[in-house]
Write a structure and sequence with these properties.
The protein is α+β, with helices and mostly antiparallel strands. It is built from 30 helices and 26 strands. Among the domains are: 130 residues, Aspartate Aminotransferase, domain 1 (Alpha-Beta Complex); 239 residues, Type I PLP-dependent aspartate aminotransferase-like (Major domain) (Aspartate Aminotransferase, domain 2); 175 residues, Gcn5-related N-acetyltransferase (GNAT) (Aminopeptidase). Strands 14, 15, 16, 17, 18, 19, 20, 21, 22, 23, 24, 25 and 26 form a 13-stranded mixed sheet that branches. Helix 2 runs antiparallel to helix 7. This is 7-keto-8-aminopelargonate synthetase.
Length: 863
């Protein structure tokens, strides 16, 4: 057996033992909506060596991010709640002593409370026990045959019954999709479908992703796969569980006529029962009959009222193959007798005229809700005839406030938060069921109309902001004028030249390359560039009080970032192949605090000022406006020290916290000799210094120059590109040589050059083999900003370590107070006396497509 075969066999056994097999990348990708995990937002000063361990970046833990979001929602009392009812009727639910009307169920027809299903389940338990503990491959419990028969009557096709839809996808997809096939996923398709597709990647099957319901992207991917794949499977939901919108089934069938290779796989669990003949679902309500190239996963739970899932496939040979050995179908336990009996009772209802009556009654309630909504300005994101509605609030804090008010008013609704939706697309999911009466539907609308403005006012949110966040028609909503709550004022500039030099340097100018002169250099270097990836816009904010004292100050840049900037190197290597033909593939417009050339504390905050918190709120509002005016894809606040207070502020405004790579600094440069320097190190680091660093110093002629000739800069630039091209742990664009040429005559830049001595290389002794591009910040901070190396000699002569050491020596002799060593290779820097500091960023994304697409690439190295 091959390694792939062993991996697949192991996966099947683990899955069927009751575990879900995902790696960190797969789990990251498959949560329905994901964070910008692949982009941890760091100052990406290109410091690395060919030794990948030295350039290693610790990636953010997705589970930690989700945990923080959920913890915040739990603290607000809107998540992980418990029903306290002694008896459930479907119409009401009691939480913390408060009885509420239930607008959160996915049992849209209310069959889970039907007495016929309950009685059937009770009788089955009495006759057959609580379970039938045996694999269905051996023998099915006595009720299975009847259920299969009745489902076949419903669909006109023999069904395959699975324990649930998640295990159903795990059983069906790896069996139906052959090694010669390819798969395209809608990026909002359910997590369970995406997760099942991870098994395909182990077999080398291409798995692509398109933006939600984007037919142009779908056709492009079909064309791309058509020459190498026998069948091309497109996988989507029939009805999407958050917004309640539909798959474009008719358009997809037309596309399949144009491309006969196209096969369609629908997860239609949210379209089941309330739609279609015999309640067979939304997709079949459009198709009428199941074509040979369509497979549907329906559910026996949710609206159906029982438990389990059902696959419908018109290909008899494939159906038998799935049934014979479909992973979880073989190894997982079968449905309990009570569940099968309840499903039989539900099937009887679906096969009778009663189902049409139930569907019509629910449709009437949906129409009633829509009629009421049409008379309001409530921001319902997708208004259609599904029982799922989504009221957008954009900011999580607005959602929490509104949900709390609705709870108190007696209405239970579901907060829709990250990762179910992008963090800035937070809102409330409202579901209608047969249990809801028209008078309470009307009362819910009235409560939302009453309390949404209150929640908006309390959280400094507006309808305009909500509709802008969801990309809705903004002309209908004009920006509401906000009443000023403080005496703060904002100075907003687009050039550092318009800001007082001494004031800027006093509050922000003693670090990195963003003192006043450094920012002037960066503006000159990165403005009006011919290459879009190196053409940046600069924005400065200073928030002042009535006395004109700065309470807060920062700067932002707007430009292109690679979406895989801090992705695992394997992902970047794959993407760089595509970028050889399409250099801007998978790049995004980012409005970010600081810039890609700098690292450090980019935001000055006077924490002792009584208006400090208001200043941050004001900045968030100002930058949000700019973010939308620029139509940026991501908004990034970065390089903060971990701070619980800021966590709450940013999360409530629709940001996720991301752990950034740690940063390194040396803040004590008071030694007078090599021995004194060594004495500042730990015993182990001291030994490392005298064995791995100091002895190699004699191999170099070390020259420090304030200016370089054009030829010298050309050599140094090639060394920089060596490092850049060999390091994808931090994957940025390559800076053009024009940036470096601007350093030559700038008084704040100098260059540490390493030449091999003639003793070490008689042939190449005049050749530069290492360079550190160093910025001198206001006579306070020394900044080794970029590095270049000749890899032919790097390992033999420890060039990287030597450059670090020479940087420390130079900073000391030039009387600088500290060194900003930046991110990456922190282990090496720590061994030379640097202190390591954790940093976090807060990010916001318009959508999650690029992150999910990169997640699909996570396992490509296993092919």
């Amino acid at each position: 057996m091959s390694i792939k075969d062993y991996l697949l066999l192991f996966t099947y056994f683990v899955v069927n033992s009751g575990y879900l097999v995902v790696n960190s990348g797969a789990f990251y990708n498959n949560m329905k909506k994901t964070s910008f995990i692949m982009l941890n937002f760091s100052a990406l000063n290109n410091r690395s060596t060919k030794n990948k361990q030295m350039a290693k970046i610790k990636h953010n833990n997705f589970i930690d991010t989700v945990d923080e979001v959920f913890a915040g929602a739990k603290k607000e009392g809107v998540l992980h709640l418990y029903s306290e009812d002694d008896y459930l009727n479907g119409r009401t639910i009691t939480i913390k002593g408060k009885k509420m009307f239930h607008f959160g169920t996915t049992g849209y027809l209310g069959l889970e409370q039907d007495h016929r299903l309950k009685e059937a389940a009770i009788v089955a338990i009495q006759k057959y026990g609580t379970q039938f503990p045996l694999s269905k491959s051996y023998i099915s419990n006595p009720l299975y045959a009847e259920l299969e028969y009745k489902l076949e009557l419903m669909y006109g096709i023999p069904p395959i019954i699975t324990k649930n839809s998640t295990l159903g996808h795990m059983a069906v997809i790896p069996t139906a999709v052959r090694d010669e096939d390819g798969v395209i996923l809608d990026h909002q398709v359910h997590w369970s479908v995406q997760n099942a597709c991870q098994l395909l990647k182990l077999r080398g099957i291409p798995v692509e992703m398109i933006r939600h319901n984007n037919m142009e992207m779908l056709e492009y991917q079909i064309k791309k796969l058509s020459s190498t794949c026998k069948r091309i499977w497109y996988m989507a939901d029939g009805v999407y569980s958050m917004f309640g919108d539909f798959a474009p089934v008719t358009q997809l069938m037309e596309l399949s006529k144009k491309y006969p290779q196209l096969y369609l796989y629908f997860d239609d669990v949210h379209g089941m029962s309330w739609k279609g003949k015999n309640g067979t679902g939304y997709v079949l309500s459009i198709l009428k009959e199941l074509p040979h190239n369509v497979m549907i996963m329906g559910t026996l739970s949710k609206t159906f009222g029982a438990s389990g899932a059902v696959l419908i496939c018109s290909d008899q040979k494939l159906r038998e193959k799935i049934k014979n050995f479909g992973g979880p179908l073989t190894f997982s336990a079968q449905l309990e007798p009570a569940s099968v009996a309840a499903a039989i009772a539900a099937a009887d209802i679906h096969l009778s005229s009663e189902i049409e009556e139930l569907q019509a009654e629910l449709a009437g309630k949906i129409q009633h809700f829509n009629d009421l909504l049409s008379k309001t300005s409530l921001p319902i994101i997708v208004q259609n005839n599904s029982p799922v509605f989504f009221l957008g609030t954009a900011m999580p804090i607005t959602t929490y406030k509104l949900v709390q008010s609705l709870f108190q008013e007696g209405f239970f609704v579901n907060p829709a938060i990250y990762p179910a939706v992008p963090v800035k697309n937070t809102g409330i999911r409202i579901t209608l069921s047969m249990h809801n009466q028209k008078e309470e539907i009307k009362a819910l609308v009235e409560a939302m109309v009453k309390y949404l403005p209150v929640a908006l006012e309390e959280t400094a949110n507006t309808l305009y902001k909500i509709n802008r966040a969801f990309g809705r028609n903004e002309t209908k909503y004009v920006p509401e004028k906000q009443k000023s709550k403080s005496s703060l004022k904002v100075q907003h500039e687009t050039s550092i030249e318009k800001i007082n030099k001494s004031i800027w340097n006093e509050i922000l100018g003693k670090q990195s390359v963003f003192d006043w002169d450094g920012l002037k250099f960066l503006e000159d270097a990165f403005s009006n560039q011919s290459s879009p990836e190196n053409d940046w816009e600069f924005y400065y904010y200073i928030v002042k009080d009535e006395e004109n004292t700065a309470v807060l100050a920062t700067f932002f840049t707007f430009g292109l970032w690679k979406d895989d900037m801090l992705a695992p190197e394997s992902i970047s290597l794959q993407l760089e192949k595509t970028r050889k033909q399409d250099p801007l593939y998978l790049t995004s417009k980012v409005l970010a605090m600081g810039c890609l050339f700098t690292e450090g504390t980019h935001c000055y905050r006077n924490e002792s000022h009584p208006l400090a918190n208001q200043a941050m709120e004001l900045l968030l509002d100002q930058v949000d406006t700019l973010y939308n005016e620029l139509d940026a894809n991501f908004l990034v606040f970065r390089d903060f020290d971990p701070d619980i207070l800021l966590d709450t502020v940013f999360h409530n405004h629709g940001f996720l916290k991301i752990n950034m790579p740690e940063t390194a600094k040396i803040q004590k440069l008071e030694w007078a000799s090599v021995q004194e320097f060594a004495s500042t190190l730990s015993a182990r680091s001291r030994r490392h210094f005298f064995e791995e660093v100091r002895p190699f110093e004699k191999a170099f002629d070390i020259v420090i120059k304030e200016k370089l000739t054009a030829d010298e800069m050309e050599q140094c630039y090639q060394l920089y590109k060596n490092v850049k091209n060999n390091n994808h742990a931090i994957n940025t664009f390559t800076y053009p040589i024009t940036i470096f040429n601007k350093m030559i005559n700038h008084p704040n830049w100098e260059f540490i050059l390493l030449y091999l001595t003639s003793k070490e290389s008689e042939e190449n002794y005049q050749e530069i083999v290492g360079v550190m591009f160093c910025y001198k910040n206001t006579d306070h901070t020394y900044v080794p900003a970029l590095i270049g190396m000749n890899y032919t000699y790097s390992s033999k002569f420890q060039i990287y370590r030597q450059l670090l050491y020479q940087t420390i020596k130079r900073a000391r002799t030039a009387n600088f107070k500290k060194i900003d060593f930046g991110f990456s290779a922190t282990f090496e820097k720590k061994k030379l006396g640097a202190t390591i500091y954790p940093k976090v960023a807060y990010i916001q994304a318009r959508d999650n497509f690029s992150m999910e697409l990169m997640g699909m690439l996570q396992n490509e190295t296993l092919k």
